[in-house]
Amino acid sequence: MTARDVKKVVLAYSGGLDTSVILKWLQTEYGCEVVTFTADLGQGEELEPARKKAEMFGVKEIFVEDLRETFVKDFVFPMFRANTLYEGQYLLGTSIARPLIAQRQIEIAEMVGADAVAHGATGKGNDQVRFELGYYALKPDVKVIAPWREWDLTSRTKLLAFAEQNQIPVTKDKRGEAPFSVDANLLHSSSEGKILEDPAVAPDEIVFQRTISPEAAPDVATEITIDFHHGDPVALNGETLSPATLLTRLNKLGRDNGIGRLDLVENRFVGMKSRGIYETPGGTILLAAHRNMESITLDREAGHLKDSIMPRYAELIYNGFWFSPERRMLQALIDTSQHSVNGRVRLKLYKGNVICIGRESPNSLYDTRVVTFEEDEGAYNQIDAQGFIKLNALRLRLGGQIGRTGGAL
Amino acid sequence: MTARDVKKVVLAYSGGLDTSVILKWLQTEYGCEVVTFTADLGQGEELEPARKKAEMFGVKEIFVEDLRETFVKDFVFPMFRANTLYEGQYLLGTSIARPLIAQRQIEIAEMVGADAVAHGATGKGNDQVRFELGYYALKPDVKVIAPWREWDLTSRTKLLAFAEQNQIPVTKDKRGEAPFSVDANLLHSSSEGKILEDPAVAPDEIVFQRTISPEAAPDVATEITIDFHHGDPVALNGETLSPATLLTRLNKLGRDNGIGRLDLVENRFVGMKSRGIYETPGGTILLAAHRNMESITLDREAGHLKDSIMPRYAELIYNGFWFSPERRMLQALIDTSQHSVNGRVRLKLYKGNVICIGRESPNSLYDTRVVTFEEDEGAYNQIDAQGFIKLNALRLRLGGQIGRTGGAL
Amino acid sequence: MTARDVKKVVLAYSGGLDTSVILKWLQTEYGCEVVTFTADLGQGEELEPARKKAEMFGVKEIFVEDLRETFVKDFVFPMFRANTLYEGQYLLGTSIARPLIAQRQIEIAEMVGADAVAHGATGKGNDQVRFELGYYALKPDVKVIAPWREWDLTSRTKLLAFAEQNQIPVTKDKRGEAPFSVDANLLHSSSEGKILEDPAVAPDEIVFQRTISPEAAPDVATEITIDFHHGDPVALNGETLSPATLLTRLNKLGRDNGIGRLDLVENRFVGMKSRGIYETPGGTILLAAHRNMESITLDREAGHLKDSIMPRYAELIYNGFWFSPERRMLQALIDTSQHSVNGRVRLKLYKGNVICIGRESPNSLYDTRVVTFEEDEGAYNQIDAQGFIKLNALRLRLGGQIGRTGGAL
Amino acid sequence: MTARDVKKVVLAYSGGLDTSVILKWLQTEYGCEVVTFTADLGQGEELEPARKKAEMFGVKEIFVEDLRETFVKDFVFPMFRANTLYEGQYLLGTSIARPLIAQRQIEIAEMVGADAVAHGATGKGNDQVRFELGYYALKPDVKVIAPWREWDLTSRTKLLAFAEQNQIPVTKDKRGEAPFSVDANLLHSSSEGKILEDPAVAPDEIVFQRTISPEAAPDVATEITIDFHHGDPVALNGETLSPATLLTRLNKLGRDNGIGRLDLVENRFVGMKSRGIYETPGGTILLAAHRNMESITLDREAGHLKDSIMPRYAELIYNGFWFSPERRMLQALIDTSQHSVNGRVRLKLYKGNVICIGRESPNSLYDTRVVTFEEDEGAYNQIDAQGFIKLNALRLRLGGQIGRTGGAL
Fold first, then answer.
1. What is the pLDDT of residues D99-114, one digit of tens each?
2. Residue B286: CB partners within 8 Å, gap ≥ 6?
3. Which residues of chain C have a CB within 8 Å of the CB of A305?
4. What is the Cα B104 distance to its own chain's centre?
5. Taking chain A, what is the end-to-end CA distance rounded to the nearest angstrom?
6. What Å distances lie between residue A398 and B5, B141, D380, D387, CA to CA?
7. Which residues of B touch D (CB under 8 A)?
8. Which of A125, B16, B405, C117 is deepest in the core (most CB within 10 A)?
9. pLDDT, tens digit, for every residue of A232-249?
10. Confidence (pLDDT) at B329
11. Does A194 have pLDDT greater than 80?
12. How many angstroms separate the CA atoms of A154 and A152, rounded?
């Protein structure tokens, strides 16, 4: 990308030091008009200061938007329908937010007639991939500026020097290096880098921002109910809530009960292992609730099929392929399964634990008549089991008869 | 199966009321010689009373064996190499014990020249399938007697009457009906049936036999280390231990810290949903430890491949196909992956939580040089990310150019 | 099933000797009213004789229906969207017809107030499973009568004797045993059993009913075009045709060019291997055409995802789970992918070969600008490949650096 | 890569114009010592001219090696054990040769103390990826030179000019542009590019190099037998042959009978669709033979498991990940399955068709007693089918009872 190629760029702008430096750098290096886009995805920061700062830089088109409901309804909930876990553990809090930012950035670019977009993600991480795959999928001819891969502000010192030269205000706490890096939205906070780089060392308590520790949580459990409709949570303790409000409440409940911490070494799409500390209080509760809701409402093979494609679905989201044909196809499969995932789950929250204490559903497939140890009035004929076993065993027996006993090959 | 077909049968005999009735019933109905086989798989019961009882029934060939080490080494550990969870949650404690019992029963049948085997599993459950698939795979021409599917002792009253008529001693606590049914071995206890049949109602505290509740667990965390070699745990807190000893110790640690309870509605192979209360204290710790050990030693795609086949592997074990070609093939894949899964994991156990607080390995693939936010001395060239993204995006852009934006199909 | 349980039964009735015997046997053994259902699925037999025969047996409610269009449109085409092959080779011609028969039988049962259904499939085959899984899924309380598993007419002699005793007309060619058994519908014919049982011996030419041999086919190739819309064929040689008409025409083309024969040893759901001779002339052409249509219109990962789930989808259909949640979920995934599978494929048919000689589509993703060996005007930047490779290689290099060269584990 | 970084480079050298220009360019641009490596993988060209040319360029270390046996034994046969097809059709003839070249190149680099390797693949294709992933996996610190991505000889004219300036002999037929590009080895030839770029146009007959057309093939079929041992072919028509000899003979048979042509639009790893004309005469016969051998010797679930992972295995090889942990893991699974894949397959080759006319094996699982339509002496109890169906139907019936008929969700 050379400077003269770009006329107008939409920058994903947080208002913080780094993206402020990027804003200025774009104006000076690319000499192009910069449009800022600042979104509330529930990261817990004021947005108005970002608007003020953008104005200070002479930005004429400033977009500040609350996307929390869209985020939860169209991204978080669809993902939770699949009980999605990356590498068996990670609830994908960062990954799932990127496509929405990319989507909105491109929509704004179309609106304001911008030919480029820019983001503040570094060249080692997954986020650059997630942003840019989204950009390219949604607007194939867009120009993408990734300052961290381009500029020479490769050290904190240089960055601060640039800020100073350009009258970019640097708050005191930003003068020193942050001891680790943070990303947050309504689903989670992640912390990584620097003091967290050694996977042999546990994170200090100060790292955690969104949860108290299990140890600090109350000695008495909290009981809640969550109601589901078509696989999505719709009410908490009987109160119908909007998606973002519901997740906000669950976050509060999770925080207070020390729920949702994860210390993980994961594999990045760009090829290396990295270590992250994640806090997903509400999401952790939601996963447990959804699994339990499905446990009585979902057919066995429907559930097993979902489980078998989940790792791939998780990988797609982690790698940044939300806006891809294959993610859409898997989503169609997943969504088809959720029609009868309706009902209520009761949970006990206690010092890091999410314990299911009851599930009920108008669509329950759990049939006491059949399963009972008691007399079942003919709902199940035990003698059927013999034929079932005999035919399931037939191929194994035929193998055994010619010397391949025990399933030998 | 008609009576005159069978000459000698090996019965999986616990010494309890039910299998004692079966023993007698086999002797009278089939008029055949009965050989008993009683195994210690860590269920926590004395075996010698079973021997005495068998003698009382005139059994001449009595096998009483301690199989705990074999159980853990050749069945539990191989399964844990895959981070196996059935339906996302269940550690398969019952399922994994059945193949060993079946195997040993068949070996004994060969030894004593028996033409039949018998078990005490009911006609509604999975265990009959697991036993019998094992029998048939290992000895295709074996005759299988499943009394619960054959006899007319279909109520507790009839069973007790038969016991009385045949001078089978019934301990007082067995006179009334047990409020639920229990299975146990070194890996877990399960409780199900009767008072546990309603999935909307949480189990009473009395149901739990192998763990104290998180609430009752100590207020202070316990820290431990587990060492792995080729994917299997070999030492606890630095002390090298045999497989069964190690699992026994982990069980104690889990019990004391309220770890490993699961209240689950699962899908049986025979077709219905059932509800089980599982306690897998040591196994729950082991799963967390193994996942964390893999997180720094296993290649990304190796791990993802394992994750993608795991649901199928779990299903095979749950359904009783341990002795099958497909389980052996998957095991070959899994075992191949574990060569470098060596090192030490540190864990904190606290009121139901298993929290990783450190992992280290001589085979670690985690490379601080590459991942660092700091200067990386050229270990990673950020500019490579651009080409990586561009080519990953190419197909999406080509789609977008002909109107299929955002991954539309 | 005991006789007195059944009041009225809907029989899948072909009008042939076997189902005529069943008809009579149901009337006498079950003493119930029999309703006949005879469907034209393109098996190439007159249906009116079946009606006459049914009348002769005193049947009052006789259903004779032409289901060819429904069969192709709602069963064959959806299956072909997935390029479905069981065990890599079999186009599932028998399997895909069974669910429709079951469905219609149940609809008729509801209409006429029947409480039971009956079919003429034997106890060793897959068809009994396919029929009955369909019945049970569509009408869970239906009673199923499978005479071949129940009666004592276990030899040809007994069957003929029963026919004679009951004045069932036996045509001369049915007096002797057929040398093999045949099933046919618009998609295929299958031949199996008796003289075909030895997989070491090739089938005689007389076995083939629906195709001439490649040797006998013309020495000059026939060229055709097939047009697709949303993944389904809609026109042949430019002429828009209904589903059944189109398949009928393709069958003729295939027959004349010796296309679509398959000699297969397959694995039945009930546990044994069996050998079948299949002729699927039109279907074989259609598969080649569809694959080629997809090759230019389907995104890479969409195609790979389809390929990865196809074996499971094929297995479900083969095993009789058409009316199951998991088949519906997979169908949703597959159907989602077909939106842009539009265009025209040109094929050359020659002595058993189906050779693609051209594909074009308004939705083509094939982009000559990008792929060209010539100057591509910047559509693709070769230097991007370097970063792409470097990051794809990163994990392998990190492994190699610690001694795991060449992808060692 | 800058010139002064490299001291000694091993070049994959064919002796043709392009790699001769590369050789000279490396000497002049990088000023480094060049070692040439020329391998016979069955491409059907003389190697000695390459040696002479290398000498002419002053190369001191020249490696000319016949790798045909290694190629077939350690790469082709392992791949065929999986019945590998990329995108349902492609036998991966090019893909499977690249890892061997990379491996040998790296071994030579280690031997001669070279710090770099170079190849002649272009920046748009898959081969660059396959070579380089192999290099990096086997020698993580190797420097890779890909001249086509680096130099400015971006047109034929410039290339020829460079050749002229450097006294590189250009044979007359190379002066003009080749109408398409060819790759060949013992498994296949591929042709692509230029006149073949339009997928709507069939390739001219002159494109084919390794097969005659079905039309030109004899009017009389040729019958052959292939014997397998542990899944690999070991004899043709009863004559035991080395791997490369066997494949050479099969190629001749395939060529003469018009077998193994494929006109394919495929999806490249680097992101675009491309069109290739492939000829794999021997491989096409081998695939049919192996599938048929497995059909009587492989357990059903073993076969289905193989089929389910095959698309991923094919993708790995196509994408260049032969030397990866995941390919090794899948290979372990595949190889485990082949122990009993022994026996003989008879085939008829006729004008493009490969028709199985018989399979036999000492390890056959095909059991006439069980499958027969005749009296089976109790090998299979038809009544077992009832229980088998009932329990397979149970979950569908339970669904139907609460309104989810027909497998509705």
1. 999 999 999 999 999 9
2. B80, B226, B233, B247, B250
3. 312, 326, 329-330
4. 17
5. 58
6. 21, 10, 11, 20
7. 267, 270-272, 299, 301-302, 304-306, 309, 312, 321, 324-326, 328-330, 332-333, 335-337, 391-395, 398
8. C117
9. 999 999 999 999 999 999
10. 98
11. yes
12. 5
- Residue A77 to residue D181: CA distance in whole angstroms: 50
3-class DSSP state for residue A369?
A: helix
Calculate mean pLDDT across residues C19-24.
96
CATH 3.30.499.10 for domain A181-297+340-360: no
Look at strands B8-12 and B116-118 and give their pairing.
parallel
pLDDT for residue B1 is more than 70: no
Q: What is the pLDDT of residue C401?
A: 94
For residue B395, list chain D residues with Cβ-Cβ distance below 8 A: 267, 271-272
Give me A362's structure tokens: 């108008």
CA nearest B330 in D: which residue?
D333
- pLDDT of D375: 64
Q: Nearest 5 degrees, angle CA D242-CA D243-CA D248?
A: 100
Given a cut of 90, whether residue B174 has pLDDT beyond it is: no
A345: nearest Cα among A186, A235, A221: A235
Average predicted confidence (pLDDT) for chain D = 95
C386/B384 Cβ within 8 A: yes
What confidence category does residue C67 fall into, taking pLDDT thresholds of 50, 70 and 90? very high
Task: Report the neighbours of C using a cutoff of 3 or more CB pairs below 8 angstroms.
Answer: A, B, D
Is A19 marked within a binding site?
Answer: yes
Altogether, the residues listed in chain A come to a count of 409
B395/C363 touch (CB, cutoff 8 Å), yes or no: no
How would you label C147-170 residue by residue, b for 16+ Cβ within 10 Å and e otherwise? bbbbbebeeeeebbebbeeeebee
- Kindly report, as residue ranges, where domains of CATH 3.40.50.620 are found in chain A: 8-72+92-174
| Å between C134 CA and nearest CA of chain B | 16
Q: Which residue has the tokens 């939300």?
A: A322
pLDDT tier at B25 (50, 70, 90 boundaries)? very high
Residue D273 C-alpha from the chain's centroid: 19
pLDDT digit string (tens) for D278-328?
A: 999 999 999 999 999 999 999 999 999 999 999 999 999 999 999 999 999
Nearest to A265 among B133, B296, B352 (CB): B296
Cα distances from B382 to residues A123, B213, C64, C142, C390, in angstroms, run 5, 50, 71, 66, 11
Average pLDDT over residues A38-62: 95
CATH number of this structure's domain A8-72+92-174: 3.40.50.620
- Range(s) for CATH 3.90.1260.10 in chain C? 181-297+340-360
Amino acid at C78: P
**Phi-psi category of residue B393: left, alpha or beta, with phi > 0 → left and psi -120 to 50 → alpha:** alpha
Chain A: partners with 3+ C-beta pairs within 8 Å: B, C, D
Is the separation of the CB atoms in C133 and D393 below 8 Å? yes
Residue D273 has pLDDT above 60, yes or no: yes
Contact check, Cβ <8 Å, D387/A392: no
Q: Which of A39-53, B212-226, C161-175, D191-205 is predicted with the least confidence, judged by mean pLDDT?
A: C161-175
pLDDT recorded at residue B4: 64
CB contact under 8 A, A365 and B138: no
A8-A10-A14 Cα angle (round to 5): 140
Quote the ipTM score. 0.96
Structure confidence by residue, pLDDT tens digits, D221-252: 999 999 999 999 999 999 999 999 999 999 99
Q: How many CB pairs under 8 A join A and C?
A: 77
At which residue do the structure tokens 């869209």 appear? Answer: A70
pTM: predicted TM-score of the whole model, two decimal places = 0.97
